[in-house]
Amino acid sequence: MLFALPLLAAGLAASPAPSDTLREQIRQADTQLFAVAFEACDADRAAAMTTEDMEFFHDKDGKSASSREDFRRSVARMCDSARQGGWRLRRELVDRSLQVFALHDERALEMGDHRFYERGKDGVERWVGQARFVQVWRRVDGTWQVERVISYDHRGVD
After folding, report:
1. Which residue segment(s) compose the domain that 139 sits in?
2. Contacts of 75 (CB under 8 A, 6+ apart)
3. Is the dihedral angle over the CA atoms 61, 64, 118, 110 positive or is it negative?
4. How many structural domains compose the chain?
5. Mean pLDDT in the chain?
6. Neighbours of 139 (CB within 10 A)
7. 3-state helix, strand, coil in the chain (%, to 5)
8. I need a labelling partner for 80 at 20 to 30 A (CA). Which of 1, 21, 87, 135 fits?
9. CA 113: distance to chain centroid?
10. Are 26 and 110 in contact (CB under 8 A)?
11. Residue 106: what are its φ and ψ, rounded to 5°?
12. Separation between Cα atoms, residue 40 and residue 31, nearest integer Å
């Protein structure tokens, strides 16, 4: 029996804990959402990754979305502004800051830090700011959709 304990422990360690799987699922959904919204500037696809009743709260702008359609319009405005200004925006999740917690009824809470980069007409990308965020994700028909977003503590690069 004592000889079996190390094998049992190794077997448990080899399979990922449910929280590790959830963390990776949410990290992937998060990365995809911001790639679609910021890098691809596809407002329709970004909105499709949200719930109908999604809400977005921003420390500088207040409540900037009260629905999927509000969010779609917000992304479209941001992308139009970027195109007119000749710059592109990229958001980077600070992976070491990422925390994900399961919530009852097919939801997950995500918290972390993110950084923002702009690439101007010269093609050079510059780190322009960072912030913290809290997001609630809901699994709808097997797909994670963002339901609530709080983006706060925005600050420039010193």
Report:
1. 18-156
2. 37, 41, 43, 46, 47
3. positive
4. 1
5. 89
6. 14
7. 40, 40, 20
8. 135
9. 10
10. yes
11. 65, 35
12. 12
- Distance from C-alpha of 66 to C-alpha of 130, rounded to nearest angstrom: 24
**101 is written with which tokens?**
């917690």
Residue 8 resides in a domain: no
The residue among 84 and 134 whose pLDDT is bigger is 134
CATH number at residue 105: 3.10.450.50
The answer to the question of residue 12 being in a domain is: no
* Strand ranges (E), 22-106: 50-58, 62-65, 88-93, 99-103
Q: What is the pTM of this model?
A: 0.84
Work out the pLDDT band at 7, boundaries 50, 70, 90. Answer: very low
- The predicted structure's pLDDT at residue 19: 60
Specify if 40 maps to a domain.
Answer: yes
E strand residue ranges, the chain: 50-58, 62-65, 88-93, 99-103, 107-119, 125-140, 143-156
Supply φ then ψ for residue 55, to 5 degrees.
-130, 145
Residue 10: is its pLDDT beyond 70?
no
Residue 6 lies in a domain: no
